[in-house]
Design brief:
alpha/beta; two-stranded antiparallel ribbon; about 10% strand
């Protein structure tokens, strides 16, 4: 079938059928034969752009999702790393704060400061002749407990051991029974307390005194008689204070406590030196004899706090 153009010239289509384009003709040739103007390069570019646009949307969406996942994982790893670092730092700080070495250093520093500003307390060891070997060993144990209480005190005392000879049995027992005794932060001397302290500044604590101790004066020196007396030799510490011509005082047990009923009908105000010391430390920290006796006075001594004083305090 022939077809004429606008000039009347016949164009032979040959075997070409518009609905069916033979394989030897490509799409461009077919469109040219049908007189459809087309720019092949522009068409290809357009197809490429469309295909690229369609492809990039899918990739972009997937890529954005993947980037979000990666960012989330990265953020979690960063947070976890920071958390582990904080935990490690906290453990290190707690370990340092509670390590024996650090605590020991802090305690030693506090005891050293007490040497210059702490209340002075002296244990008079001039009565060794009144004690048996067993009593001497018990006194060594009491000195250990007293020193232990002083280490724990918020405001430690400045401790002295007077009339303390290195040739004595007590010295040997202290070294034998107390680990690190020679490193105790306290003063040890063979001299008598009166050669170290002015008599007018000294108060000798003895349960036989008529004077009740009202408060602890940081300007005074308090002396405890280093004595364990299982044979109950009365008034030894009071007589020693009289011999030294020193002022005396007793803990105000009678003013704040009363005897309580017990099966043995036992009542005693005689305390070990470490028990007296614990009461003094508790009083210095609480400024209350009620609190001090509540903490430090042994229940087995047969005394209890006055009820009316406790109610009044409450």
């Amino acid at each position: 079938m022939d077809e004429a153009d606008e000039d009347g010239q016949v164009i032979k289509l040959g075997k070409l059928s518009v609905p069916c384009i033979q394989e030897e003709f490509d799409l461009t040739d077919a469109l040219e034969l049908l007189q459809i103007e087309i720019e092949p390069v522009a068409f290809k570019e357009s197809c490429t752009e469309n295909e690229g646009l369609y492809f990039s949307k899918n990739v972009s969406r997937k890529q954005k999702n993947w980037e979000k996942i990666l960012a989330s994982k990265k953020s979690k790893r960063k947070e976890e790393k920071h958390r582990r670092k904080l935990n490690h730092t906290e453990r290190s700080v707690n370990c340092n704060l509670h390590s024996k070495r650090v605590l020991k250093a802090i305690t030693k520093e506090r005891l050293s400061e007490a040497r210059s500003g702490g209340v002075k307390l002296c244990i008079d060891l001039s009565m060794m002749q009144y004690m048996s070997t067993k009593e001497t060993s018990r006194l060594a144990a009491q000195i250990r407990r007293l020193y232990g209480s002083n280490k724990k005190a918020t405001n430690p005392f400045h401790l002295y051991l007077t009339d303390f000879s290195e040739d004595s049995l007590l010295y040997k027992e202290c070294v034998r029974m107390n680990d690190g005794f020679l490193n105790y932060v306290m003063e040890r001397t063979e001299e008598n307390c009166l050669k170290i302290f002015p008599p007018e500044c000294v108060i000798y604590l003895t349960p036989d005194s008529e004077n009740a101790l009202e408060y602890v004066d940081p300007e005074k020196v308090y002396i405890l008689g280093g004595l364990v007396d299982e044979s109950v030799q009365k008034s030894l510490t009071y007589e020693k204070a009289q011999e030294y011509q020193l002022c005396t005082a007793r803990l105000p047990v009678e003013e704040y406590m009363v005897k309580k009923e017990n099966a043995k009908n036992f009542h005693s105000q005689i305390l070990a030196i470490n028990q007296v010391f614990d009461i003094l430390v508790a009083f210095c920290e609480s400024h209350s004899w009620i609190e001090a006796f509540k903490v430090g006075f042994p229940a087995g001594k047969g005394y209890t706090l006055r009820t009316e004083l406790i109610q009044c305090k409450e």
